[in-house]
Design goal:
222 residues; alpha+beta; five-stranded antiparallel sheet; 13 strands; globular
């Protein structure tokens, strides 16, 4: 099957994207895939059930191009976050160089995947590890239509702030929309300086139908 291409990333306002990521830890790239293309991409894996199906390695050319350009677009934010959190982490100028560094450091897993959640399926809250082999931002693309292909299945994020209760939020997503979200931690400017926020992600229970999404990581080795 031919893998469809996404909308060019130059269509989006990346100044606004950077502002959203700094202020709230997420942003929506509306209609990154047209409806028909999102449904075609959902067919890239026929595996059903709650376990993600890793994407083929190497990635199909359209997804590989999207991943490489997304890395370049998000690189300034990643570097700024690392500096703010005083992390001894450097990010090369290109995804190819970053992937090579990660392989040399022992990262050999294919983490990008298509996930299918059937009725009553859900994804519990996850916190991804932090370190030299983890890019601080990732992409989730919704490949099924809320209210048509499924009900429920909202993308939920929580943020745990020092000495505060976790704050949950539901991201507004439709078919073909993509969310750029914090992978693990992000810096927040407070009254006493910068502090670290821990981000976790979940998908709420699918009440009917099947929920399909694509998780595109920037630190795996496809």
């Amino acid at each position: 099957m031919t893998t469809p291409a996404s909308r060019p990333l130059g269509h989006y306002d990346w100044t606004r994207v950077a502002q959203d990521l700094d202020t709230q830890g997420w942003t929506i790239l509306s209609k990154l895939y047209a409806a028909d293309d999102a449904r075609a991409l959902a067919l890239a894996s026929e595996q059903s059930g709650p376990l993600p199906a890793p994407l083929p390695a190497p990635l199909p050319a359209p997804l590989a191009r999207l991943r490489a350009e997304l890395y370049a677009r998000l690189l300034p934010a990643a570097r700024a976050w690392a500096a703010a959190l005083d992390l001894d982490t450097s990010y090369p100028d290109t995804l190819a160089a970053y992937t090579q560094e990660n392989r040399q450091a022992g990262q050999s897993r294919d983490l990008s995947a298509i996930q299918r959640l059937p009725t009553n399926g859900y994804q519990p809250l996850l916190q991804h590890a932090e370190g030299t082999c983890v890019f601080p931002l990732r992409l989730i693309i919704l490949l099924s239509e809320p209210g048509v292909d499924h009900t429920g299945g909202e993308l939920v994020m929580t943020e745990q702030r020092p000495r505060m209760q976790s704050r949950p939020l539901v991201l507004p997503m439709g078919l073909g929309d993509a969310a750029v979200i914090a992978t693990s931690h992000r810096p927040v400017q407070g009254a006493q300086g910068i502090y670290r926020v821990t981000a976790r992600q979940a998908i709420s229970r699918v009440r009917s139908g099947e929920h399909v999404s694509l998780n595109l990581m920037l630190h795996d080795a496809p």
